[in-house]
Amino acid sequence: MTERPRVVLGVGGGIAAYKACEVLRGLTETGHDVRVVPTAAALNFIGAATFEALSGNKVHTGVFADVPEVPHVRLGQQADLVLVVPSTADLLAKAAHGLADDLLTNTLLTARCPVLMVPAMHTEMWEHAATRANVATLRGRGVVVAEPASGRLTGKDTGKGRLPDPSEIVDLARLLLDRPQALPRDLEGLHVVVSAGGTREPLDPVRWLGNRSSGKQGFALARTAAQRGARVTLVAAHTAGLSRPAGVDVVQVGTTEQLRDAVHLAAADADVVVMAAAVADFRPALRAEYKIKKSDRDPDPVELTRNPDVLAELVRARRELPRTGQVIVGFAAETGDGGADVLDFARAKLARKGCDLLVVNAVGEGKAFETEDNGGWLLGADGSETPLQHGSKSRLASEVWDAVSGFRTGSTGAPR
Asked: What remark does the entry make about the cofactor (predicted)?
């Protein structure tokens, strides 16, 4: 890949075109060289001057500008990624049938790099048989057609077809630049349950016992699974500031017992369960009805009681499930001590819990919790140990799903 990744940002003629400006800014601010190629219809929503100011590159829509440079061929040949935001029903149809009547559709035909098309349209258009067939055709050719979000559309309409959050689009684009094969449709037909965030155990109406988990890794796992075709249920504890991933059903919880109940309910018909949440091991034995007041005397000791071991319970419960073959993935945040290192503790935890795969993170100041990046190891019940390259949390998520797919098919599942 070039030192400064080259991205062609195609912009379709839909009302969501204004969000392409946020995607453009997100890419340029993270060091990408972006060339914006709008359709003529897109310029009815956003002027060329806006795209030129944000990208630092000239904007054209037709094939007759800069003819000596042959842009309708060169752009696709030289790009590291072609990203189309929004991909209208019209653009999906043209791409599926190889039509090339402007600079963007010509670029799609000449691209030999990863192509990510992010749809946005009314629900009826997204669900129409013609659109579904076009999407299937494109995915069959290796194009990544993202799942749209659900929510408010234009006017008073709501439903599936909303453009995902711009930050999520930027994340998917960066993932494909890092790992071009990160989003195969290998989870289609599966129900995946992911837990995320940190549980909080109330001491009184104001104070709580908890941890530093932001939920970013669990959200990355849910987002990546949805884009790989799964039906995803995300059981989210406290994850302030994180946007709901597109195509994901979210269940909000607070305490460990609430998370336990929600995960068990969702896991009853799940093919895969990933326990990425940082579940509090203990909770106060008593919760004060009123705020505990400061006084001159020393405070009373806080008595703790052990929380349920949700991961171990899931392993035991799957024996009673009507379906077989459920894969359970645990997470271990470890620090080591003077007598044993991170992997020693992780191996013992894998044996104790009985899950199929265990993702191990070394935690500490600036590691894993409340960061954008992650790394570690993936341990298998078969004794395998695979290093997980340090990188974005979406990259680690994609490696975990590679391993889950490999486990289900009986291959090694080692990340690519």
From this structure: Binds 1 FMN per subunit.
Judge whether 353 is annotated as a binding position: yes
Alpha helices in 246-341 (DSSP H): 256-267, 310-317
Q: Where are the beta strands (DSSP E) in 155-228?
A: 158-162, 191-196, 201-202, 208-209
Strands 191-196 vs 373-380: parallel, antiparallel or unpaired: unpaired
CATH 3.40.50.10300 range(s) for the chain read 191-409
**337 known ligand binder:** no
Establish whether 349 is an annotated binding residue. Answer: yes
- For 344-358, the pLDDT digits (tens) are 889 999 999 999 999
The residues, ordered by sequence, that sit 6+ positions from 76 with a Cβ below 8 Å of its Cβ are 8, 82, 106, 107, 108, 109, 110, 111, 112, 113
The verdict on whether residue 404 carries a ligand-binding annotation is no
Domain with CATH 3.40.50.1950 in the chain: 6-178
Q: Which of 68, 60, 143 is nearest to 103 (CA)?
A: 60
Query: Which of 132, 124, 134 is CA-nearest to residue 159?
Result: 124
Q: How far apart are CA 197 and CA 145, in angstroms?
A: 28
Buried b (16+ CB within 10 A) or exposed e, 35-56: bbbbbebbbebbeeebbeebbe
pLDDT tens, residue by residue, 106-137: 999 999 999 999 999 999 999 999 999 999 99
Report pTM: 0.91
pLDDT recorded at residue 199: 94
331 is in an annotated binding site: yes
Cis-peptide, bond into residue 119, ω within 30° of zero: no
> Above 70 in pLDDT, residue 36?
yes
Q: Where are the alpha helices (DSSP H) in 232-341?
A: 256-267, 310-317
Do the beta carbons of residue 1 and residue 78 sit within 8 Å? no
| Buried b or exposed e, range 287-302, using 16+ CB within 10 angstroms | eeeeeeeeeeeeeeee
- Say yes or no: domain 6-178 is CATH 1.20.120.610: no
C-alpha span between 387 and 113 (Å, rounded) = 27
CATH architecture designation of domain 191-409: 3-Layer(aba) Sandwich (3.40)
The one catalytic residue among 57, 106, 134, 211: 211
Residue 272, beta-bridge partner list = 192, 327
Query: Which of 286, 219, 272, 284 has its CA nearest to residue 250?
Result: 219
Examine the residue annotation and report whether 106 is marked as an active-site residue of this protein.
Answer: no
